[in-house]
């Protein structure tokens, strides 16, 4: 009896020491899963990160130097990722800001992008996520891309 009681007490103590997963942690996991899918060239995993109506946009300059916003569908993004050799797309992010209010989350993630091991560009991703019945899903991404001013 004493051994059983001791085992239960130790189990409770160990469980109490485990950090609870917060909403912020869950948002980060979803975003990390998206970049893991990119590195693994896994379109199915990638699709699981997005809502059905997700929007992807990039802010860039055209050849005349004018700022433009370019849109891409999730289907186009998945096809692009699927065409890559596994491990060739490596976007390294830092979670700068993550905020959550009820079922809405934002994340600001500066990044450096490497293609086949070579630095390509840097910028910032701005994510909007929605908590759905099966977890956090990305609704919107807009990013900047540049080759200068990267840290």
Mean pLDDT: 90
Helix and strand pattern: HHHEEHEEEEE
Percent helix, as a range, is 25-40%
Beta strand count: 7
Radius of gyration: 20 Å
What is the CATH topology descriptor?
Answer: Nuclear Transport Factor 2, Chain: A
CATH class: Alpha Beta
Judged by helices, strands and strand pairing, the structural class is alpha+beta
| Number of continuous helical runs | 4
Poorly predicted runs of 5 or more residues: 9-18
Outline type: globular
Number of domains: 1
CATH 2nd-level architecture: Roll
Beta-strand percentage range = 35-45%
Largest sheet: 7 strands, mixed
Multimerization status: single chain
How far the N terminus sits from the C terminus, by CA atoms, comes to 60 Å
């Amino acid at each position: 009896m004493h051994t059983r009681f001791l085992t239960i007490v130790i189990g409770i103590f160990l469980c109490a020491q485990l950090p609870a997963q917060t909403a912020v942690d869950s948002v980060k996991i979803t975003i990390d899963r998206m970049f893991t899918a990119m590195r693994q060239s896994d379109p199915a995993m990638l699709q699981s990160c997005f809502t059905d109506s997700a929007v992807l946009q990039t802010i860039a300059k055209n050849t005349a130097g004018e700022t433009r916003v370019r849109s891409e569908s999730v289907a186009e993004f998945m096809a692009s990722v699927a065409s890559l050799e596994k491990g060739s797309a490596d976007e390294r992010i830092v979670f700068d800001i993550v905020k959550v209010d009820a079922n809405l989350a934002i994340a600001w993630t500066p990044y450096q992008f490497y293609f086949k091991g070579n630095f390509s560009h840097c910028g910032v991703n701005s994510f909007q996520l929605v908590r759905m019945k099966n977890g956090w899903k990305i609704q919107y991404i807009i990013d900047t891309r540049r080759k200068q001013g990267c840290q």
